Amino acid sequence: MILPIVAYGDPVLRKVAVDIEPDYKDLNKLISNMKETMYNASGVGLAAPQIGKAIRLFIIDASPFAEDEDLSEKDRETLKNFNRVFINAQILEEEGDEWAFNEGCLSIPDVREDVFRQPKITIEYQDEEFKMHTETLEGLAARVFQHEYDHIEGILFTDKLSSLKKRIIKKKLDNISKGKINAEYRMRFPNIKKGK
What we know:
two-stranded parallel ribbon; Peptide Deformylase; alpha+beta; peptide deformylase activity; 5-stranded antiparallel beta sheet; 4 helices; metal-binding; single chain
């Protein structure tokens, strides 16, 4: 089932999400719905807060980036199979000099900006079977993870912009929260009264 994606301005996007347990009700159905929602919106990641649930769950399918000829062969190979569910994720370590990449977000349609992030991270998470994993991600895989991880920490990519950039896009962000946007997918807007 395709779920509405929560738009910028909704308080759920600012909550630090809580861990979930293996007995979380209808978890497999939720993951399946999140995947359908993400693919319908042509996204490469979707976090539970973006569908209104403040839980530490997000999904990533970065395989569309594997077609990018500008990336290294190693990066393309990694991204081709980077399709996972992350539960109760933690970043253990971030390393390297920050680098810029143009990011967007399904909760903030039509806004794209360069965001600086570190290129190498060590993470810990559980998969959908609640098996624990520890691994190191680099390059674009690390970046996509960091973007989705920020969602479960109540952080948006726009928070990482300079105050000048924030002022420039403020009107756009206000319009998104009011539903004055033509998204290609279902959305839920915080500042639209029900029944209108």
